[in-house]
Amino acid sequence: MSAMLAESRRAEATAAVESPRGERKRVVIIGGGFAGIAAAHALRHADADVLLIDRRNHHIFQPLLYQVATAVLSPAEIAAPIRQLEAKQRNVTVLLAEVTGIDVASRTIEAASPGAGVRKIGFDYLVVATGMRPSYFGHDEFARYAPGLKSLGDAETIRAKILGAFELAATTEDEGERARQMTFVLVGAGATGVELAGSLADLVKVTLRGNFRRIDPGKASIILLDAGNRVLPTFAEAVSRRVARRLTKLGVKVMTGVKVETVDDQGVVAGGSRIPSATVLWTAGVAASPIPKMLGTKTDRAGRALVDPFLKVVDTPGVFVAGDAASVMQNRHPVPGVAQAAIQEGRYVGRLIASELKGREVKRPFHYFDKGNMAVVAKNYAVLERGWLCTGGFLTWLVWAFVHILSLPQLQNRLRVQRQWLWSYFTGQRSSRLIPESPTI
Ligand SMILES: Cc1cc2nc3c(=O)[nH]c(=O)nc-3n(C[C@H](O)[C@H](O)[C@H](O)COP(=O)(O)OP(=O)(O)OC[C@H]3O[C@@H](n4cnc5c(N)ncnc54)[C@H](O)[C@@H]3O)c2cc1C
């Protein structure tokens, strides 16, 4: 047994139950994503100790993950250390740990920290903000061949797969294998699939042009598959049609109404036909992490906790769920699983707890203010839908770029992303084209 493991086991055996102590209440927040960070910030003036737990040491700006996967940006440009984000807030302590259990009856959680084993931590208030993970709709065996896009590790794996495929295509003597290496299949034509396909089209046509002698990357085939009957199903139909036309113009083959039956090491079988491909990417469904189920409350089909209009878990005082992990209804429609909703929910829960700590009852339920839905389709083109307003084109793309830069977590991220975007806009080059040493190549 390694010294580190032995130490970890010892720590586990003696793990103390850390209960809230003294007069100050303890608020435990699980998840340092959009909702968790917003909840912690909303508690900045609260007379409470806030413990923010995440299994990663960084917060990720997920809307730009596809740009890491397609070599536009590097991981550090879209992520920020959670400790740094919380450094100025004196009542917040950050803990790097994976929450593995929740016992609402004894008001404790179990958290496993690297090298420190499992600890029980007591709470007065609990905010679950653990987000979602890719769902393979009951076919978890597909995950081995078709990575999803949720973490920086996923984005780097995808980037290595894409760039590695061109290297292998350039060295093989087998025509069939070359075609397979140069075929990219994206399963799921929601916003992530559309954005990834558009950026991939730009990569093969512009960035990689002239980089290979034996192959022409511009002849790569990019196929966007979806079982539904249109791309971007959460947008209006007219927007879907425009986006599908735009993708086709970029050279992406859009195949809707086609169900993926198998994904294996040779490619996919979809709609009864095999598509040989060395790079299949999963941009389809999402499911909640196992954490909401541990609350013992009802969950929806995707595993999100059903909460009341105050984002509280029913019959469990002081326990809240915010962000993608919560199933919230507004005017009989579900609040969408987007960053703005997660931020607003996290902020609402933080403020509600702060009010309760002052002995005030909050009577106003959560209300989601929809600032609009955007998707970008490669360079110079984005679509926006907000209420009756549906628009798309270059100006919308500029608005998209501006909004995303402003929304990045730290000033240094904003400056670096701005610089990279300007560089790539004017030169067509992408600065993050490294293939880490990996078994993919
Ligand atoms: C590729 C991609 C593209 C997207 N594009 C857009 C977009 O363009 N616009 C938009 O509005 N939305 C977009 N979204 C959706 C948006 O990112 C989510 O709605 C938002 O991140 C939800 O925030 P959250 O705080 O609920 O969860 P997350 O941001 O996912 O954060 C959850 C956190 O919980 C932590 N966690 C999970 N389980 C545990 C555990 N057991 N123990 C400890 N920590 C745990 C995770 O490490 C993570 O840091 C995109 C999502 C993805 C994946």
How do you describe this structure in short?
With 441 residues, the chain is α/β, with parallel strands linked by helices. Helices cover 31% and strands 26% of the residues. It is globular.
Question: Can you offer a commentary on this structure?
Answer:
This protein has a 5-stranded parallel β-sheet. It has a 4-stranded mixed β-sheet with strand order 1-9-8-7. Helix 2 runs parallel beside helix 9. The chain is globular. With 441 residues, the chain is an alpha/beta fold. It starts with a helix and ends in a 14-residue tail after the last helix. A hairpin with a 5-residue loop joins strand 25 and strand 26. The chain is built from 11 helices and 27 strands. Flavin-adenine dinucleotide binds next to helix 2, strand 3, helix 3, strand 7 and helix 7. Flavin-adenine dinucleotide (FAD) binds next to helix 2, strand 3, helix 3, strand 7 and helix 7.
